[in-house]
Each structure stands twice: as structure tokens, then as C-alpha cells.
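Friendly challenge for the regulars: who can give me the C-alpha cells for this chain first? No prize, just bragging rights.
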Amino acid sequence: MNLLVRLKNTIFFILFLALFTVSYAQSNQNFDKLYQQTAKLVDDEKFKNAFDQALNLENIGNQNNNNLQISKANYLLASIFKKQENYLQTIKYATKAKEFATLENNLEYTILSSELLSWAYVYIGFFDEANSLLSDIDSMINQYSGKEKHFLTYKKLYREASLLRRQNEKPKAILQVYFKALKEINQYDFSNIHHKNENYLSLYNNIGRNYKDINTDSSFVYFEKATKFKDNSDERGNADLDANIAAYFVDKKENKKAIELLNKSIPTLIKSEHKFLTAESYKVLADAYKNDGNLAKGLEYNTLYLTYKDSLNLKRNQSVNEAVEYVKKIKHVEKNTDSKLPYTYIIAGFIAIIGLIIIIVLKKKKSN
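First reply, four minutes later:
Bragging rights claimed.
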């Protein structure tokens, strides 16, 4: 009888374990499917829907007590705010993503969240912190091999070039880093054509931009290379490239080409969230009209540029200041915590010594 009861209990336990395993696997599949959907919304810049779904993903991760899922959700949230150039929220969510990825010993999301953090630190002027993160990323990448290593190295080099640009390094030094990045990305096999187009367009566009003060012909060569990777899903990248090509045309006194190009791209920009690019495009268009002899149009677009610029600079400065204050506060807390640690160790050691003395005294009393 006891044998039958034990057998019955064993069967129930095995069935429970099997059901739990299937349920857990299904939960992970559902999370991964929703994660991919949300990542696409971020790529397509449908930020409201992406934000709501990313918060939902974080809730699922918390319910599952799954550190990696929480990290992934926060990485998406940080990516949304990066695209909106909100430095404070990027830092907050990327920091959280990095913490949970580290808890899970997950290299991929530790690297990806560190890369987002380094971007934000560059833009708020914390260059030492950005450099430190890039060094950490470098050592983590060395643990990879194959195509993943090439892509992660490319992203790290791309971010390094951005840091050099913000530090006003010479164009030649920046170009050297971009060409190293190009070598790495050429060895990566993209499974997603949109990601391939977006990364190549951005890289070639930045190479062209940095060639501008060295060799304008080379600059246009790389702008043309970038044009081949234009993708309808990358409005920001397309508009940035158009503004750079139009500026090249203005420099070459081919003003009508610049006017035609920008009159096609600006309406798309106005509908989007890319207000800084809209402002820059207005500036180039104003120069093109003025140089072409249409002073009225030149004045009209220059006024639009100045109106946009003043408003946007105010918002950007506010965003930068908020992020700077937040980072300073974090660093102050960390500094205080670190400074208290030696005293904590001293007190703990002192208590341990007192405890040892008490034990020795008690033992002596017992022996007497």
C-alpha cells in the first residue's frame, strides 16, 4: 500500500514538474515574441506604443522574477529615450538594464546597456565616464568570437568616434576610428535588412560628414554610398543624410539641387519628432535660397531656423542639466558609500576582536 502511495506521489510530482517546465518555456516564448514586437516599434519610432509595451515587458519580468527579462525591458525603455534625446531617462533606464544584466551575468545586455550609457555620458559632457564604459565594453567583447564580436566591436568603435567628435578631435583621427568600424561591420552578416541599411547609412553618412573639411570630393563619395542604403523605415537617417548632401551642394554653389532635395525631405521631418534635424535643414535651405538670389525665401527659412533653434536649445540644455544633476547625485552617494566602507570594516573588526576576548575570558573562567 505504501509503495502505491509513494508511486502515486512520484507520478504527481513528475506531472507537476513537466507542466511547470512547459509553462515556463511558454512564458519565455511569449516574452521573446513581445520583445521582438516592441523592438520593431522602437525601430519604427512609434514611441508611445513602444513605451507601453516595454513597461508591460518589465512587469512580466518582475512577475517571473527574471533578471534578464527586466534588463531587456529597461534596455528598450532606454533606447526609446535615446532616440528622443532625453539624456536623464536614458541614463536611468540604461543603468537599471545594466544592473540586472550584471546580476544575471549576461554579457550581451551588459554591453548593450553600457553602450547606451556611454552615448548619454558623451552628450552631457562626462567624457571620463564614457571612456571608462568603452574600456569595460572592450574587455567584455574580447570574451566573444565570430560575427557577434564583429558587430559589438563596430558599435563600440562607432560610439568611440562620437566621443572624439564631441571632444572636437581632428577629423582625421575621427575618420581612422570610423574606418575601423567599417572594417568590423563588413564582417558581420545582418539577418535584418532594415538594421543593415540603418547602420551602413549612418556610418557612411558620418564618414562623409567628417571628410567635409579635408576633401569635399571624398565627402560626396561617401554620401553617395550612404544613399544606396536609404530605407523608408529610417526617416531620421534619411533626413540627416539629405541635409548633409544639401550642405555639400550649397558649398559647391549648386543651390537649386539643394533646394530641390530639402523641399522633398522637410515635409517628412515636420511630421516626425526630429525637430533638431528640421532646424538644421531650415538653415541649409535658407543659405541655398539666399545664395540663389531669392532673399525673401532665404529670410523666411532663416527665421524658421532661428525660432526652432532657440526653442530646441532651451529644451536640450534643460535635458542636459537634469541629467548632469542626476549623475552628480549618484556619484556623490557612491563616494559617501565608498568612504564609509573602511569605517564599517574597522567597526566590524573591532566587534570581532571584542567577541574573541569575551570567549577567551569565559573559557578561562570555566577552566578555573
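The chain has a mean pLDDT of 84. The CA atoms of residues 20 and 26 lie 10 Å apart. Your move, everyone else.
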